[in-house]
């Protein structure tokens, strides 16, 4: 069955499932493949969850399941939270090997750590056997304390690129390189576990986003960043790379415009003839045939230079809705 999509689709955004990736391979389609960034970032975070983090997740999951499956335990915990003046008295988030949910759970645990320890030592609400099974080791508390700030940044990136409205493909590579060059770089006060986690996530994200590939400058997401005034300076690319690509796109647009205008001109001539066309188009008659001729391609470098010299708008600027007449 023919869907008539050839030439009408420039790129397809999809998840990272193997069958979907295969379906969007160059051998099958003539558009560019753009894996979902939020999903790709999540996979990179999962790659960073090595043995020591996985153990914390398992322990946290065991504790969460206990409260979710035991109404008396849940009610007793909520009562203690009220007694201790906790603002959030809800039960813990469900835990999966998932950065977003893990960081939410870690925040819960860190805020209620002392309360949980007292809860486990209260034999009126927790049996000794349950306490031994559920109590989280001091080592695990330390891991959560160290790694949660890193995960908060990754959660922020995931949230921005997962919202239902106003998500722009132009944000993908600026966020990617900001994570790689800033947030996932080792800090002076990072412990060995955080350093290892950052390194693994950084390597995985770099590989998955193909940041070292020669064809990076031609990827649809990066082209969108070139054309977004907020990101056009792209500090992670060399000036020559940016300007060369913009000049190339400008030249391609000029050539496409010329071809379109020539096609329109031929169609008009075939339908009505040169004399009739001149009479029906007063502006064309007055201003001459070459008035709207496309500029020479040599104008492109100058146009790119002007575009790059303009200061980018602030990231704090909010898009204002268009007024209705």
TrEMBL record:
Residues 315-325 have a biased composition (Basic and acidic residues). GO terms for biological process: regulation of transcription by RNA polymerase II. Residues 258-278, 302-325 are annotated as: Disordered. GO terms for cellular component: nucleus. This is Zinc finger BED domain-containing protein 1-like.
């Amino acid at each position: 069955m023919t869907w008539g999509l050839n030439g009408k689709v420039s790129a397809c955004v999809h998840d990272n499932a193997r069958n979907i990736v295969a379906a969007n391979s160059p051998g099958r389609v003539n558009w560019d493949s753009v894996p979902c960034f939020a999903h790709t970032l999540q996979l990179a975070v999962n790659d960073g969850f090595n043995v020591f983090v996985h153990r914390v997740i398992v322990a946290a999951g065991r504790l969460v399941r206990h409260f979710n499956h035991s109404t008396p335990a849940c009610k007793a915990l909520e009562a203690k939270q009220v007694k201790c003046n906790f603002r959030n008295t809800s039960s813990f988030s469900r835990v999966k090997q998932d950065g977003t949910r893990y960081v939410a759970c870690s925040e819960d645990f860190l805020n209620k750590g002392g309360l949980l320890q007292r809860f486990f030592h209260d034999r009126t609400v927790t049996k000794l056997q349950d306490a031994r099974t559920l109590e989280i080791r001091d080592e695990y508390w330390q891991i959560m304390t160290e790694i949660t700030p890193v995960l908060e940044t990754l959660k922020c990136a995931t949230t921005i690129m997962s919202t239902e409205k106003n998500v722009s493909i132009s944000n993908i590579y600026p966020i990617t390189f900001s994570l790689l060059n800033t947030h996932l770089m080792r800090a002076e006060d990072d412990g060995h576990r955080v350093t290892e986690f950052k390194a693994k996530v950084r390597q995985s994200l770099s590989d998955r986003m193909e940041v070292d590939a020669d064809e990076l400058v031609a990827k649809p997401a990066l082209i969108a960043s070139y054309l977004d005034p907020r990101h056009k300076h792209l500090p992670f690319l060399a000036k020559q790379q940016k300007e060369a690509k913009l000049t190339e796109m400008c030249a391609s647009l000029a050539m496409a415009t010329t071809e379109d205008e020539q096609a329109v001109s031929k169609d008009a001539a075939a339908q009505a003839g040169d004399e009739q066309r001149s009479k029906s188009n007063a502006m064309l008659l007055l201003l001459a045939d070459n008035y709207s001729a496309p500029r020479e391609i040599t104008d492109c470098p100058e146009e790119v230079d002007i575009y790059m010299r303009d200061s980018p708008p602030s990231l704090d600027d909010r898009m204002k809705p268009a007024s209705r007449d």
